[in-house]
Amino acid sequence: MFVYPAKGQSPAQQSKDEGACDQWAQQQTGVNPQVLAQQALSGKAYQQPEGGFHSVLGGGAGGAALGAIGGAIGGNAGEGAAIGAAVGAGAGLLRARRDMREQDQYNSAVTQEQQARLNEYQQAYATCLQGKGYTVGGQ
């Protein structure tokens, strides 16, 4: 956002007005842009998806165990374990992909919400500065 002192305000006055408008915009919107930025940088919106590679391994191990039992009943525990491991790993991979897709959707929604809140703050901030005789651009 660019702020131009349209009525010849001094740099000191502009700094004072910008600080006052920042506080006013925060009071009006309930948004603190510094807090939003810190949350974005800290990755607070992002949460590691459950499962991932461990879902594949867990699915493979569980499938191998079930396959070994089934294979033992059928007379070939090793072959049953191999088949079970492949099926279990496949199921684990599908589960991991679903978890990652859900996490991406969540992160996108959080980002959109944060952007909407930041836009609301910026509009209030610009309105305040315009009321104090500044030209505001780049919103």
In a nutshell, what does this entry contain?
With 139 residues, the protein is mainly alpha-helical. The protein has four helices and two strands, in the order βααααβ.
Note down, in words, how this protein is organized.
The chain is mostly helical and 139 residues long. The protein has one domain (2-137). It is 76% helix and 6% strand. The protein has 4 helices and 2 strands. The chain has helices spanning 11-29, 33-42, 53-74, 77-131, and strands at residues 2-5, 134-137. The protein has a two-stranded antiparallel sheet. The model has no long low-confidence stretch (mean pLDDT 80).
Give the C-alpha Rg.
28 Å
Question: Could you give the order of the helices and strands?
Answer: EHHHHE
Q: Terminal Cα separation, in Å? A: 5 Å
Helical content, roughly?
Answer: over 70%
Structural class of the secondary structure composition?
A: mainly alpha
Beta content comes to 5-15%
| Mean pLDDT over the full residue set | 80
Count the DSSP helices: 4
Give the CA-based shape. rod-shaped
**Strand line-up of the largest beta sheet:** 1-2
Biggest β-sheet strands, sense, barrel: 2 strands, antiparallel
The number of domains: 1
Ranges where pLDDT stays below 50 over 5 or more residues in a row are none
DSSP E strands, number: 2
